Amino acid sequence: MSEPILLEVVTPTKRVFGAQVSEVSFPSAANGYYGILPGHTPVMTPLGQGLVYYVQGGQKHWLTVFGGFAEVGPDHVTILARESETVDEIDVDRAEAERSHALKLLKEAQTEADLGNAQAALDRSIIRIEAAGHPGGHGY
Amino acid sequence: MAGLQDIRRRIRSVKNTQQVTKAMKMISAVKLRKSQERLVSLRPYADKMKAVAISVVGRIKGQNLAEGLELGPSAQAFLNPREEHRIRVVLIASDKGLCGGFNANVLKKATAFFAGRSHESVVLDVVGKRAADWARKHGFQANSEYLGIPLAGVERVSREVCDAAALQYQNGEIDALYVIYNHFFSAVAQEPMVMKVFPLDMDAPANDGKSGIAHLLEPDPNTTLEALLPRFVETEMLRSLLESQASEHGARMASMDKASNNAGEMIAKLTLTMNKIRQASITNQIIEIVSGANA
């Protein structure tokens, strides 16, 4: 009926999500966020990192995603993520700790590689904190 | 009687062995559960990855080649299979024995696979001590040996092998990458298999049904393929390593279970013989006493 898209989110270590939804949004590596509604043209694109949301039962739900690929068809979206987690799985305190640690590393970074690593860690923690900021689903 | 002492000693020794095999079976069961969990959680990802890769590559091959698209190096690996002059093979066995036919089967498969190929035409990577021993015995100079790989280390191995193989392919040093491993069907059923990792055989799975979908590749076909294909190869390799680990523990569990049962049977037989001998000696003694009293 009104939830015609089959969204599947799988990572090498687990199946994060799999159900019918009515709308999906995910971050691509190159073209910013994609918003997918039923009947979308088939697309295959590498993923960046950031927040995925899907609409189920009129509510938005959030996931984090770090790298991987998305395959879109008229009636399905398959997200092959390198890493992904639902909002419930995020430990906010740990993410906050990671952020302050990453900020510290960023200040102390000596080499280009250190800087890159610290920046990546910072980005990841920020994404997690942002995702956790969205409650399980707020009004749509 | 000397016979009685001997049998008692044997029973004791068989009991000790049975304890060892029982313990090994228990350990294998735990390890099996762990590696099976890891494998089962990877399978959906690997299956999806394969379906997507085949669908995308199938389409690219059909259309974009005709449009004169410039392909990156790893895309070419999939789209333009070459004649196989020199191949790279990853042979996966275990470090330890006592796991039934696990190693024997996969090594037999390997022997059959290599029959008719010269040693120079093969770059061999071995995983596990048994595979390394096999390679030495058959005169192969192993390119790299991975021994004692823990469950957490399989990702590193698969990445190393795949990166190296992809580079070799681009430089024209090898024409294909194969894996020989034990495929895990269940805790009691494993089967040795030869899998071609790349170049992909694109003709076989064309009737998949879904492969008819014409995907747009964004931002552009080349970037997408360059990102997708190495990842796909790595996933396949990771999967075969995990399959092999799960198979090993399954095989060991089954064979240790059998060993424990055999030990149990043996103890029962020996106990019976021991009782017979004891009874015979008692009967003998009574006869002696009775005949002595009669005299």
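Helices of chain B lie at 2-62, 73-79, 102-114, 129-137, 154-170, 221-294.
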